[in-house]
Design a protein that fits this description.
There is one protein chain. The protein is mainly beta. The chain is built from one helix and eleven strands. Strands 2, 4, 5, 6, 9, 10 and 11 form a seven-stranded mixed sheet that branches. The chain has a four-stranded antiparallel sheet with strand order 1-3-8-7, with no helix packed on it. The radius of gyration is 14 Å and the shape is globular. The N and C termini lie far apart (40 Å). The mean pLDDT is 95.
Length: 129
């Protein structure tokens, strides 16, 4: 079984920064790609960013492009999300997701939650105004 554990969430003021981490543990795990999604109260879960493990190809939601950066540490099986210039409307639970199966990896595919098999429990990010 694969477990994804997020950390790094918290309370930050508007314009501030946070760095989220997501570590994969359990059986031998070789991700094909990992991603971050977020879900605000009463809203659907939205795509934030994704990265392919081999080659590091990244995708971002338009709303975070230029402010958020997704990266990974292959040796640690860990993915990060550096979030800068945070806005109150970005208050949400941030989820890490992972996929092992090799296959399609494009902008249409990575933005769908159904593309990922494994999910973390989420970490709360609150941006105060």
């Amino acid at each position: 079984q694969v477990q994804l554990v997020e950390s790094g969430g918290g309370l930050v003021q508007t314009g501030g920064s946070l760095r989220l981490s997501c570590a994969a543990s359990g059986r031998t795990f070789s991700p094909y790609g990992m991603a971050w999604f977020r879900q605000a109260p009463g809203k659907e879960r939205d795509f934030v960013a994704a990265i392919r493990w081999s080659g590091g190809t990244t995708y971002y939601a338009d709303s975070v492009t230029g402010r958020f950066t997704i990266s990974r540490d292959n040796a640690k099986n860990t993915v990060y999300l550096q979030m800068n210039s945070l806005k109150p409307e970005e208050t949400a639970v941030y989820y890490c997701a992972a996929r092992e199966i090799v296959g399609i990896w494009n902008s249409a595919y990575v933005t769908q939650s159904k593309s990922y098999r494994y999910w973390g429990q989420g970490t709360q990010v609150t941006v105060s105004s």
